[in-house]
Amino acid sequence: MRRRRNVKILATLGPASSGYDQIRALFLAGADVFRLNMSHGSHDDHRARMAHIRALESETGRPIGVLADLQGPKLRVGVFQDGAAELAEGAPFRLDLDETPGDARRAPLPHPEIFAALKPGATLLVNDGKIRLKVESCGRDFAETRVEVGGVISNRKGVNVPDVVLPLAALTPKDKEDLEFACELGADWIALSFVQRADDVREAKELVAGRALVMAKIEKPAAVKDLESILRMSDGVMVARGDLGVEMPLAQVPTTQKRIVRLARSLGRPVVVATQMLESMIEAPTPTRAEVSDVANAVFEGADAVMLSAESAAGQYPVEAVTVMNDVAVTIEQDPLHRQVVEAARGAAAATTAAAMTAAAREVAETTQLAAICCFSHSGTSAMAAARERPRVPILALTPLESTSRKLTLVWGLHCVKVPEVKMFGEAVAEAVRAVRAHEFAGDEDKIAIIAGVPFGRAGSTNILRVANVGGPTL
């Protein structure tokens, strides 16, 4: 099965999409990778969904990626005497560690780490920013605030602290348990929530220990400030616009998204644009025009993947949502303006042999109108480098490792094919020719570019670029 687009679709599974038939329908509609949201559902639920995905993979003969998304720390206010209270604009409001149920004058906030980091002038956001509090004075166990935006505050609503770096690890005990479960289950990517610094990603990678790739979710202003070091430590990145839109002014989210996508592309890190892309399709069979433009914008930016959350996990029209996203992506990529925008954002290749080889492959393929670029890769690094170039011709990522082929399903433009282990370059040419024929990328009259590393099987050894006739001898 060959997709007619380069951007990938990441679909979240949930109550609306848990059965085999439902997951199969999402895949056929265009989903390339499935997200298991560890914030919802039991381990048994996720284990059953993974079994369906792998059964579907066997049926279709196509690798399917799985991303396990960790919950991260959840900061919440305590409870109230009457379940809720009305906060008036301009009124004082105290938060403290006292567990006594709250009222309109104070409330418990059972997070000493927040008080440890607060300073006068800091902002506290409650219930996705619907309530805004400004800190006037604070100590190790309290904060006296002024209500800037009032409203109803109720039991255990979430709290965001955008102005400070909290002394919290990104991985809670639950996250560590979920991470180990996901790795044992065979997840290909682990998405890390609440990233504030590169060390958060380093800790996760140490626990993953090479069993999966780690994706940093950028959802806090602190992460935006430390963006480059976080991206260099990560295997991929997600523009998590939900919390990001709560913790920074909404008007800054679009430019922040563009900055993250541009930097991720320049570093060769897969980048996913996520949250509320087709939000109205949770309840409606068609999206708004603005949502279509939002998806189109991410495709124009050259993002590796666009993501559906509740639309596919809990919505009434999960298959329709994937279909719409697929149709928008295909239409945008066929527009000549798309190619101009994507190429304008391409940066210079890194100063490595592998990067130079993949850049040369793109140039040769486009100049001489080759049918495809075939990239042999064990770890996936060279295939990602080829995708970084955003060539005009298809890329086949050829690997003997099933795990690598699954990981690469998230990456822009890669058509992943599992091939036998090769030891000689002549064998690689033969496998490349077989793959482009079998997957209908080229015929006997076509030529292809082949990228590989000798000796085979060594990560990061890309050092050969060859043009081959599909129907004749190698050039």
What does this protein structure show overall?
The chain is an alpha/beta fold. It has three domains: 8-72 and 170-337, Alpha-Beta Barrel (TIM Barrel), CATH 3.20.20.60; 84-160, Beta Barrel (M1 Pyruvate Kinase, Domain 3), CATH 2.40.33; 353-469, Pyruvate kinase, C-terminal domain (Pyruvate Kinase, Chain: A, domain 1), CATH 3.40.1380.20. The chain contains 17 helices and 21 strands. It has helices at residues 20-29, 43-60, 112-117, 173-185, 198-208, 221-225, 227-233, 241-247, 253-267, 289-301, 310-313, 318-334, 336-344, 353-367, 381-388, 402-407, 425-438; strands spanning 8-13, 33-37, 65-69, 84-87, 92-96, 106-108, 123-126, 131-139, 142-149, 151-154, 159-160, 189-192, 213-218, 236-240, 271-274, 305-308, 372-376, 395-399, 414-418, 447-453, 462-469. Strands 1-2-3-12-13-14-15-16 form an eight-stranded parallel β-barrel, surrounded by nine helices. The chain has a six-stranded mixed β-sheet with strand order 6-5-9-8-7-11, with helices on one face. Helix 1 packs parallel to helix 12, helix 7 crosses helix 9 (253-267) and helix 10 packs across helix 12. The radius of gyration is 24 Å and the shape is elongated. The chain starts with 7 loop residues before the first strand and ends in a 6-residue tail after the last strand.
